Amino acid sequence: MAGHTGGIFALDQEKYDADEQVKIICLGDSAVGKSKLMERFLMDGYRPQQLSTYALTLYKYTTTIDGKTVLVDFWDTAGQERFQSMHPSYYHKAHACILVFDVQRKITYKNLTNWYKELREYRPEIPCIVVANKIDADLKVTQRTFSFAKKHGLPLYYVSAADGTNVVKLFKDAIKLAMSYKLNSSDFMDEVMRELENFELEQREESSDKEDDVIKEEKAKVA
Amino acid sequence: MAFVAKRCGVKFDPPSVVLVYEDGKTKKMRQRIMPVRNFSKFSDCSQAAERLKNNVRHSAYLEGVSLRQLERLHGVLRDRMRGRTLKQSLASLRLDPDQDLNKLSDEELARKKAQMDELFEHNRKRKDDPDFVYDLEVEFPEGTGHETCSWDEDESDDGF
């Protein structure tokens, strides 16, 4: 498994640099309902792309924000541990994160800590929404405060993929957050990446300049 | 209905599904043993369950038994063929809220998901339902009267 990490980059992630493209990742334990949420939001309009090698399902969505067409890629990831080595590529260039737990299973709430910690290692600044899913199983959970979200200053949404409560709102808000992050990003890692890219470009230009000089010199000699 | 299914179970040797039912005419309780044929540790449980449910000799008796239950019973039989104990396979059929499902194999995870799907389907609002609302927004105001979640009580392992 480990050797595959680099391979996923073959899935052209460069496109997420374009202004009208955003990438939103869905994180959380196995069976918290990530795919069910995606499907409820997209209804019949979804064309998922299963990439089983990467333990990943891609959902494409097109919307309009302020008169501009925006293409959204939702990365629905696998929670299983054996796909751990895939995680760096999930985080790569993501603009927002939807972090889901199951209100019926305490362990999925406890594991938010691990997911969030890992997310922040790769994407220290991107907006993140915490989602309490399956509230249809027991509406009383909406009376409870889950301190994880508050503690990290994150919004908490009570949703149900089954009856649809707040699902559309969740995704619409996530897209807005992803767009505003993208347009106003001051993410340190993004800055560093940009610097590095510019640096490489400059170097390349410099070296080609030198070649030119050499050629000119040679030409001069010939002349 | 001519036969009213009461209880369902399995027998390991030979692998069979056992049904306890009431005969609609005589009102007597009876037991029916249905051998599961061509079934190995590599077989697909949902296919095998379907085969049994549609079997000409058994289908009338199994009308009141859901396909899902038959699937689970086949799962127990197959687990046995794979060397798992009854206790282990029953545990895999139960939902334990503290079990970390991230550690399961695809197949075991699918089994858990199938169980969760029962509630999901039960509570599901479909597009054709008369009261379906696509963008259903409900506010759950935070504020006074909120219980703190007992899940937050053991905070010690949460320190970052």
From TrEMBL, chain A:
GO terms for molecular function: GTP binding; GTPase activity. GO terms for cellular component: cilium. The lineage of its organism: Eukaryota, Metazoa, Chordata, Craniata, Vertebrata. It comes from the Eukaryota. This is Rab-like protein 2A. One of its GO terms (biological process) is microtubule-based movement. Belongs to the small GTPase superfamily. Rab family. Residues 200-223 are annotated as: Disordered. Keywords: GTP-binding, Nucleotide-binding. SMART domains: RAB, RAN, RAS, RHO. PANTHER family: PTHR47978.
TrEMBL record, chain B:
One of its GO terms (cellular component) is ciliary basal body. It comes from the Eukaryota. It is found in: Cytoplasm, Cytoskeleton, Cilium basal body; Cytoplasm, Cytoskeleton, Microtubule organizing center, Centrosome, Centriole; Cytoplasm, Cytoskeleton, Spindle pole. InterPro entries: CEP19. Keywords: Cell projection, Cilium, Cilium biogenesis/degradation, Cytoplasm, Cytoskeleton. Its main location: cytoplasm. GO terms for biological process: microtubule anchoring at centrosome; vesicle targeting, trans-Golgi to periciliary membrane compartment. Signal peptide: none annotated. Belongs to the CEP19 family. PANTHER family: CENTROSOMAL PROTEIN OF 19 KDA, CENTROSOMAL PROTEIN OF 19K CEP19. This is Centrosomal protein of 19 kDa.
